[in-house]
Design brief:
The protein is α/β, with parallel strands linked by helices. It contains 16 helices and 26 strands. The chain is about 30% helix and about 25% strand.
């Protein structure tokens, strides 16, 4: 089976069910199949062949999904580009991928046109919205092309998506994801389309991210209706859930937090929601505890993974989110596990290793590594980085530091390059952040290591205050009561907001640029 079969099966089982709801468009599975056939035939006429790279720059729309399945039917490689990238990054990604056809959203035409002479590999420019000189019209291409099925010999190990992911330094890395990467996950975790059962899934995470791609694959195979929002906006999201009676949602922690704190939250009827999956960034304990109270009856799932593992490799399931009301050891254990990333999924092996590659026992911090059929084929045109990431035994080195408990639940301790080394002792930024978040006057916090001539590194806390706020000295003393003294921050800086990527992850590399110099510890 391949990803094209996901759409073919659902189009056969529930042809008249809506596959996509996007603004004023309502597209059934049958129509989606026809539109992707027409688009595939149009691309074929333009000279697109199996293995060619086809890129797209656009926020979430129905075209993102149509473009992927059209590429898949041709055996071409779909390259979803981060629409927040800069012109220099677009140029790099397009040229390294040797893209021959580029789909362009309306708001990105002004970015693409000035770099056209720098991306000579692109032969076809297709405008997704409106009319633009020297660009083909997306809807006209579809309307003028035949709806005949496009049949291509597609193998399990054929590349289907080239997804660029930002590194801590330099240009983005191209992650090569195969048909089997996605098929393995979907077949193990999603029930195929049922003509009698309908479900609606609201989609707001960006579709250039692997979490969005995974959500699309699961929904198409499962015969679920995708309710698409261009970009997350809390009031619009709640309005869509209420109007369309959405049952499922994929959220990142910042989205969930914004919803619950929205002044009009109680004005919307969100009772149709049955499942909320969250991930892509650490979930603060207080946020998920509040969500469990505010959304009674909703099953919460924490999904953890990376682009390099075609998304989810561990889950913290609904049963793990049921917290006993009676105080005691069981309640304490369940509350602690809310801060974990759960246990490995079927067909995924995981362990924690030391710097020598030896597996560590429970509760010892090391690097988390994973192995299984969802591991990427490698980095595009970068054998050296591939060898550093995937070892000879097939283990992908996630660079996430963490530990597992005695029942196999994994806990994160930070990225390997985020760990703070003070006087030979390793300090987990996440542990310090967790302690600081319990202070009533702290809204958000990120902890980084700052170079120190005496200790090597010292912890620095960058905080967003709530209410009346508090003093740095108060926070440092507060931490002394919560965690080992050597782990407490040696300085505190207050900011209006923390820099984040679109998926809600705090950009610590940006914080290190701003505050990573020794003078940030002045007065320690």
């Amino acid at each position: 089976m391949n990803t094209v079969d996901f759409l073919n099966i659902s189009a056969a089982i529930c042809p008249d069910r809506e596959a996509i709801i996007f603004e004023d468009k309502r597209i059934t599975f049958s129509q989606l199949n026809e539109r992707t056939n027409r688009l595939a035939n149009a691309l074929k006429k333009l000279g697109v062949n199996k293995g060619d790279r086809i890129a797209l720059i656009q926020v979430n729309t129905n075209a993102n999904i149509e473009a992927y399945f059209a590429c898949a039917k041709l055996g071409a490689v779909y390259v979803p580009l981060n629409f927040r990238a800069k012109a220099e990054e677009f140029t790099y990604m397009i040229n390294t991928a040797e893209v021959n056809t580029l789909f362009v959203g309306d708001r990105y035409v002004s970015i693409v046109n000035p770099i056209r002479d720098k991306i000579p590999c692109v032969r076809n420019f297709i405008a997704l919205e409106g009319k633009h000189p020297e660009m083909l019209d997306y809807e006209k291409l579809i309307a003028s092309s035949p709806a005949d099925d496009v049949i291509t010999d597609i193998g399990d190990n054929d590349l289907t998506i080239l997804m660029y992911t930002a590194g801590t330094t330099g240009f983005p890395k191209g992650v090569m994801l195969t048909q089997s990467n996605f098929v393995n996950y979907v077949l193990e975790n999603v029930t195929p389309a049922d003509p009698e059962m309908t479900e609606k899934n609201i989609l707001t995470v960006p579709l250039y991210h692997v979490a969005g791609t995974q959500a699309v694959m699961a929904a198409i195979y499962g015969g679920r209706t995708l309710v698409i929002e261009r970009q997350f906006e809390a009031a619009e999201w709640m309005g869509l859930v209420q109007r369309e009676k959405a049952n499922r949602a994929m959220m990142v922690p910042t989205m969930l937090k914004q919803l619950m704190e929205h002044p009009d939250f109680k004005k919307y009827d969100l009772s149709s929601l049955k499942v909320i999956t969250y991930g892509a960034a650490p979930m603060p304990l207080e946020v998920i505890k509040k969500a469990l109270d505010i959304f009674p009856g909703v099953s919460f799932i924490n999904a953890f993974g990376q682009t390099e593992t075609a998304a989810t490799i561990t889950t913290l399931g609904p049963e793990d989110h049921v917290i006993p009301s009676k105080p005691g050891p069981e309640r304490d254990k369940k509350l602690k596990r809310l801060s974990s990333i759960g246990r490995p999924m079927a067909s995924v092996e995981m362990k924690v290793i030391d710097e020598m590659g030896n597996e560590l026992p429970p509760f010892e911090v090391g690097e988390i590594v994973a192995r299984g059929p969802r591991v990427m084929a490698g980095y595009w045109k970068d054998e050296e980085k591939t060898r550093k990431t995937i070892d000879k035994d097939g283990w992908v080195h996630t660079t996430d530091m963490g530990y597992k408990d005695d029942e196999g639940y994994f806990f994160l301790a930070g990225r390997s390059d985020d760990m703070i080394k003070r006087g030979g002792e390793l300090i987990s930024p996440e542990e310090v952040e967790a302690a600081l978040r319990t202070h009533p006057e702290i809204e958000e916090v990120a902890v980084i290591g700052v170079t120190d001539t005496e200790w090597g590194q010292q912890p620095l806390a960058v905080c967003v205050a709530r209410g009346k706020g508090c003093s740095p000295d108060e926070l440092m003393e507060y931490c002394r009561q919560k965690i080992a003294s050597y782990k407490r921050p040696r300085a505190v800086i207050f900011v209006a907001e923390l820099p984040r990527n679109p998926m809600g992850k705090v950009l610590k590399r940006e914080l290190r640029k701003l505050y990573g110099k020794p003078d940030s510890l002045a007065g320690k």
